[in-house]
Amino acid sequence: MKNKRLIFLFLLSIPLLISLACQFTPTPTPTNPPGIPPSQVGKPAVVASLPVKPSVAASPTSKQNSPAGFTESDCYASGITFDSITTGNSVDEIYDGPYINCNYSTTGAHGLSETAYISIIAYKADMLDGFYMDLKDNLSGYVDQSNEWNAQPDLPAEAMDVIDMLRDDSDGYVFMITKDANVQGCKLGKGYGTEMVNGKYLVQIMFSSCEGDTSSYLAALDSLKSAAEVAIYRIETGTQP
Fold first, then answer.
1. CA distances in angstroms from 178 to 100, 108, 117, 182, 208, listed in the order given
2. What are phi and psi for residue 14, nearest 5 degrees?
3. pLDDT per residue as tens digits for the range 59-86
4. Residue 108 and which of 2, 96, 119, 178 are 20 to 30 A apart at CA?
5. Are 8 and 94 in contact (CB under 8 A)?
6. Distances, alpha carbon 231 to alpha carbons 77, 151, 197, in Å
7. CB 177 within 8 A of CB 142
8. 13-34: b or e for each residue (b if 16 or more CB lie within 10 Å)?
């Protein structure tokens, strides 16, 4: 079981290894190594694991009256059209039913990545908390890095990261970090979150853009959060909230 979990966590880290190439880009200084943002210099890399569909073969659940599966229509968030959607069902010693991954990715007018992501995976009750804490610990590293960046002496106010925490409790951790991308001339926002829902589902969301402002980014992240909650409600009750 331990080895299987380690393998799974390794698979979770793969998508974010790619997206780390699009990390925040504060105003560069001559002493920074090429291509490394000032906020990252001398700091350990933080990999926020994005869940992918379970690597085990999908199998039908044997439970009676079990929830129906997710559908592409569950990937609905205001202003976002997802271009890659994966759904399925998997039951074994780790997973306990349906899963869905909703992805959107393009390049914005300022040349930076525009990304939106929703993942919902059903886990066995005794596995859920462990995977949630792993994700929360990873995601909190982004907040830690921003706080360290902001703690620099004589850092101008306009150069500081702005952290908006949408949720921080035992069942959810959702936040948005915004800053001025001086090189590209836009306001950069990156939001992340994970939640446990109904004692069964692990949700993760991610949003990245440099084509709006703080209020629009917060609205987009909240829309992703709400979309996941509505999708879970639908398959658990058979109705829309």
1. 28, 16, 18, 12, 10
2. -60, -50
3. 333 333 445 799 999 999 988 999 999 9
4. 119
5. yes
6. 11, 40, 11
7. yes
8. eebbeebeebbbbbeeeeeeee
